[in-house]
């Protein structure tokens, strides 16, 4: 999927992602973006909330920057989020390395309402093609099955059609 848009695929299950990235960019990368948040998993596909931030710090060059739009908010369990309390309220990461590399770290929700009009125009003009990440299109009755598939990392993006 990454290669289809000109990116270099990094398969963190087959080998260490830090080594793969530094093999391509020995001096480190300028920017890294966390789009996963608390649901990050390690090479064994087990949840490890801090692995993405730790790996990003390891691959960033001096003066680089981290952006984060992954979900990092904590909440109580509810009918809409029955497992919410399983997520931690804090992360451990190497602050000395963040400091010594003079890295910047900026996180927060994406400003959807601000960027949506421009994104719609890019899609309409054919400049952006977000459908390349869609792995399945289903009816609402299949949603429970596909939530399970997504949890097992068998799906990337599922579109749900309503009757």
From TrEMBL:
InterPro entries: NAD(P)-bd_dom_sf. Gene3D superfamilies: Medium-chain alcohol dehydrogenases, catalytic domain (3.90.180.10), NAD(P)-binding Rossmann-like Domain (3.40.50.720). One of its GO terms (molecular function) is metal ion binding. Its cofactor is Zn(2+). Keywords: Metal-binding, NAD, Zinc. The keyword Isomerase does not apply. The keyword Metal-binding applies. Belongs to the zinc-containing alcohol dehydrogenase family. This is Alcohol dehydrogenase-like C-terminal domain-containing protein.
């Amino acid at each position: 999927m990454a290669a289809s848009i000109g990116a270099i695929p990094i398969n963190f299950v087959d080998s260490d992602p830090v080594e793969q990235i530094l093999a391509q960019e020995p001096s480190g990368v300028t920017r890294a973006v966390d789009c996963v948040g608390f649901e990050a998993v390690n090479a064994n596909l087990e949840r490890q909330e801090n692995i993405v931030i730790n790996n990003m710090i390891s691959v960033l060059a001096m003066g680089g920057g981290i952006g984060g739009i992954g979900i990092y908010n904590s909440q109580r369990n509810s009918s809409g989020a029955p497992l919410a309390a399983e997520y931690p309220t804090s992360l451990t990461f190497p602050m000395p390395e963040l400091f010594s590399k003079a890295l910047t770290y900026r996180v927060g929700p994406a400003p959807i309402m601000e960027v949506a009009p421009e994104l719609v125009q890019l899609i309409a003009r054919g400049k952006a093609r977000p459908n390349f990440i869609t792995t399945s299109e289903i009816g609402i009755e299949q949603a429970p099955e596909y939530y399970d598939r997504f949890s097992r990392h068998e799906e990337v993006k599922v579109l749900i059609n309503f009757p």
